[in-house]
Design goal:
3 domains, Gyrase A, domain 2, alpha+beta, globular, five-stranded mixed β-barrel, 24 strands, OB fold (Dihydrolipoamide Acetyltransferase, E2P), homodimer, eight-stranded mixed beta sheet, BirA Bifunctional Protein, domain 2, 20 helices
Chain lengths: ~650, ~650
């Protein structure tokens, strides 16, 4: 109806008037007004009795119902011919709906009586699927290929908008706290091992050197796995006191579920972090729970402020002023996990503590403890059926007590006999009494090294399995209150991380990264070389059993950093090379500093109540790293590779 | 003085108290207060007469003067032994300075009388350079190696902070205008040509397929050169109506001055952009200047609002409500540049317009025009000396008029004779009269094709050369008012872009990118295949002769997009392959849309009044793409390369 369409062109490419409103903005206040809307047209509902048809017009702000009189020949005919999901521009007058036809929401009380329709762009009648029909969606792979249609679904686009909202809250809070956002390089240096990092071939400037002849060596950047070194160097510079970045990071981890080759961190670093106003807690506090005994007090404050603000604005939930704190030791002992889900009970009980006389005589038991979970028929009724039907794994024993087995279960247990071969029926009685066991109770039994290592124990896994089964059975409805938790005082070094072993080759590894400062109480042990005794000033932030962030106070002493590289981790010069600038920066008046990185994708998945981070990323890759939309990765011509001095392997 | 330092550790790693203030926050209001500060210690100034010493303590917020009484043995002795640039924690009492010793700024009116000093981290006495001494800085290369020291200089750290401030203004403005910030992938698909893009080798999932044997083909992602396709697909989805992103982009352009392999764009895209409220301007407006005749009206509005807000907040400058608009044709004709610097005159004059009778008879002249710049001895006195001493290049003729040459300069000109071999002295008189020439005036003369192509003409370059010379001579002081300017109505296709020719191989190239919509008035010409006649709905934003952004209304008609790929650009199927998903998205009800990308680094360089974008990037690379701090790019072991199925070229 407006400027004439050019004949040879299929879509409307000539001028057309501006929208006056979005499809989500009309309300009864607009009744009687003439409006222009643009959006996607959804299927017709014909009302033959009144000679009219209803259409929904949808844009990213909402949906408005259109009313077209069949007598309005031009408009109705245009709409009749328009395939669903085409974009149209309509003009008409806003009408109040009859009271009984009003629906909830802004636009639910009005229709637009259309008198003019311009087809802006016809959709093919051959759409791979109709995003407006959420009850008939194809599988995830097909939707990934046509992500531009999947994103038209409100459920997905709401996630993308919420992500933008949260990112802006983060920035507002941090700018308000005097943070400076600094972009650090994505193109960094490849480290000698090259594990988990993506390489980026670069043209070698030296290769144009004729004296090099055919010996030119290809060179590479590596994509930043995290801004760890740049942000530490930035804080060492003193150029900014408080740094943050919502940073894109890259890791080449194939085969990990729900990981993306590129992901986003909320990354912070602060100079002059300390132990806070009540510093440091007295040594006696070591026995107390819920005490922050390490440095990085200011990081904790900032993160709690930030998280509280997000949950308030997005979820309408008021979180506590400070989050609960638990040491790694306590978390492993009570929950069998370094990211415990504290929304439910089923805590782990230490049986060795009940059998001191036994452990005194057996040397085998001194560095091993026996522990159990009791699922009580009466007290844990929501879990008991899930427990009955849970399998556990080879390292746990699962016993359902009967009146008959009550007196012998411990004596007959393989796990208990392994740890305490000399047990007798008196011990059985002591344990039964202490645990207040009854017939019908379920017992999960296992043993483990006394000093906890790694991320979880056998009973920690069994505990989660029972919980998940109880939930999926519908027996247990978990609280909606988010359980935030700080885990602190991790061991600084580990030999138990399979992911790190292929680089460590039997040497110590850093539990998190080699820049984490030891607890100051453990510095002497560090200098004595007793790596296993050193706890780090590391903190993980855990939400409902999911680690959503981790950070630490960093080492600012170059001698200490060098000692760890050289004498604990036993790095050779090639391995140390990528850290040389950091060591030197520490020598040039580096301030004490610390920071944290929060997993933005994972936080968004929790806020959007979805189990997959692909639902909160506009254009994600599949679990195998394949991009089904853009069809990448893809092969490249030999000629292009030659510019970088590389070729396919032969 | 606080918790004892561990002997074996060089830096202070034990608890210490919080700062009460930053070094930039004290004022006379704090007089008499006991404070704790932390920062970098600068050289001593000893006042023997009063038995005291002054030190400056600096942190990223500012500098506070410390006063230490030599009688305060412990504190003074500690400070005496502390190397410059060490980090220290001091305690003391704020004192008002004597009136005659007060300086400007927050902290200039107070000292802190120090009574306690804790050395947090000693700097090496062997610093590569002292950032606190800006008058004695080493060369840029050395400073790049020790960027963590260079960033300690206030000049540099202020730039980094201003960058953060501007990014936050951008986000606040755009969120306020209902934009959604969406992260698009950095890892995209490599296109068949692979020009200018960085490759990222990926593990080939197919390579674990045993049936492939040794024929496994290496595969690659490509780093995003810009979010162009993802953002268009996002808008085509309808999931968001207005997208933005402060986006990291990657281009492998070696040898370009002041370019970085990774750089940052402020990237926008909007659905349903149109011609605005007064759409479209009447055809007669084609002769008027300062008229926006293309679509994308909303993009223009948003960008002007954004830029006005930045200049207001950061520079305190109130920019006009709307920026000047100039067509490409006008810009090339009057200024010889598609990014004209309009802060000064020296406009180009068309001599062919003065000689219609000549051009009527000469067929050679019909597609060539003769033009000149006149630098007037009296009117352009600031430029005349610069003009006298400017060289020009082979394609310009430079004549300084004398009374003698006044009557023959045109007749004797090689350029004029080339275009108008039949000229006579009457023509000379006509031109002299029209130009009001006087002895002492400088004339720059050149000819060019009547239809302008490319980014600049010979006289456009000469004009800039004269301007720059006049500035560096100190003859001309350019206005501080920023001159913002939109350039519109560019030719949609070009054969004159050397950068594109290596892919085009003699075919037409898109002047900007193949997604730009033609002006609707030129669609018929497009469908007739008259590529040279088609102007695009492209707009560049120019500031003081620097292009700071560019964008366009995009094609939303898949048939038109396909026509351009296939019949104008003559892409083969392999070349078209990376665009297939966009073509399909256009078929699925894509809305009309348009957007822009602003060069954030360049805008920041202008706002920070520096000529190098390296001064506004925390960790830049050198012009050759080398990172002197992180020592990248670097070589990688064969073993790592094998995981990606590649090896060094043999």
């Amino acid at each position: 109806p407006h400027a004439p369409r050019t004949i040879s062109s299929k879509a409307h490419s000539a001028p057309y008037p501006d929208r006056t409103h979005s499809c989500g903005s009309l309300s009864p206040d607009n009744a009687g007004q003439r409006v222009i809307l643009a959006g996607w047209i959804l299927p017709e509902r014909k009302m033959k009795t009144i000679g009219k048809s209803f259409y929904h017009l949808k844009d990213s702000y909402g949906t408005t119902q259109l009313l077209v009189d069949h007598a309005q020949g031009d408009s109705y005919n245009t709409l009749l011919q328009v395939p669903v999901e085409s974009t149209v521009l309509i003009e008409g007058v806003v009408e109040l709906r009859p009271i009984d036809a009003r629906k909830l929401g802004n636009t639910g009380a009005v229709d637009v009586l259309v008198d003019r329709v311009t087809l802006l762009n016809a959709a093919t009648p051959d759409m791979p699927f109709l995003p407006s029909n959420p009850h008939n969606l194809p599988n995830e792979e097909l939707r990934a290929r046509y992500r531009y249609l999947d994103l038209r679904r409100s459920a997905l686009s709401e996630n993308i908008k919420k992500r933008s909202q949260v990112a802006h809250i983060v920035r507002n809070v941090l700018h308000g706290l005097d943070f400076t956002e600094v972009e650090t390089p994505a193109l960094l240096r490849s480290s000698p091992e090259g594990a988990r990092e993506f390489l980026v071939p670069a043209r070698n400037p030296a290769s144009s050197d004729p004296t090099q002849g055919s010996q030119r060596q290809p060179v590479f950047y590596a994509l930043s796995q995290s801004p760890q070194q740049p942000k530490q160097l930035l804080i060492c510079s003193g150029g900014v006191d408080r740094y943050f970045q919502i940073a894109k990071c890259f890791r080449d981890e194939d085969g990990r579920k729900d990981r993306q080759p590129e992901f986003t961190q909320i990354d912070l670093e602060m100079a002059f972090v300390s132990w806070g106003k009540n510093q440091p807690p007295s040594p006696s506090s070591a026995d107390e729970t819920n005490v922050w005994r390490i440095g990085g007090y200011q990081v904790r404050q900032v993160v709690e402020k930030l998280v509280r603000k997000i949950w308030k604005e997005v979820q309408g939930i008021e979180l506590p002023e400070t989050f609960r704190v638990m040491t790694y030791y306590e978390a492993m002992t009570r929950f069998g996990s370094d990211k415990p889900d504290t929304r439910f009970g089923l805590e782990i009980l230490n049986l060795s503590d009940l059998l001191p006389h036994v452990s005194d005589v057996s040397s085998a038991s001194s560095d091993v403890i026996l522990e159990c979970i009791v699922v009580r028929k009466s007290g844990d009724s929501a879990f008991i059926k899930a427990s009955h039907t849970s399998g556990g794994d080879a390292s746990t024993e699962h016993i359902t007590l009967t009146d008959a087995t009550r007196k012998t279960w411990l004596l007959e247990s393989k796990a208990a006999s392994h740890v305490y071969p000399d047990m007798n029926s008196e011990d059985q009685t002591i344990v039964n009494k202490a645990l207040k066991l009854k017939a019908g109770d379920d017992i999960w039994l296992s043993y483990r090294p006394r000093v906890p290592t790694g991320g979880s124990t056998a009973l920690g896994k069994a505990r989660l399995q029972i919980f998940e089964r109880a939930q999926s059975r519908g027996d247990y409805i978990v609280t909606k209150d988010p359980h935030f938790l700080w885990i602190t005082e991790f061991p600084l070094f580990t030999r138990d991380d399979a992911d790190k072993e292929h680089l460590a080759h039997g040497r110590w590894s850093s539990s998190h990264h080699p820049f984490t400062a030891p607890m100051w109480q453990d510095i002497d042990a560090l200098y004595r070389g007793e790596a296993e005794k050193v706890r780090g000033q590391h903190y993980d932030l855990v939400l409902n059993g999911v680690e959503i962030g981790g950070g630490s106070v960093r080492i600012h002493d170059s001698a200490m950093q060098d000692l760890i590289f050289t004498h604990i981790l036993k790095l050779d010069d090639t391995e140390k090379f990528p850290f040389n600038q950091l060591l030197h920066a520490l020598q040039c008046g580096a301030p004490p500093h610390g920071g944290i990185a929060l997993g933005f994708d994972r936080i968004m998945a929790i806020l959007c109540n979805t189990s997959s981070i692909r639902d909160v990323i506009a254009f994600p890759k599949s679990a195998s790293g394949t991009d089904l939309l853009f069809k990448s990765p893809a092969s490249v011509s030999r000629q292009v590779l030659e510019e970088y001095g590389i070729q396919p392997q032969q």
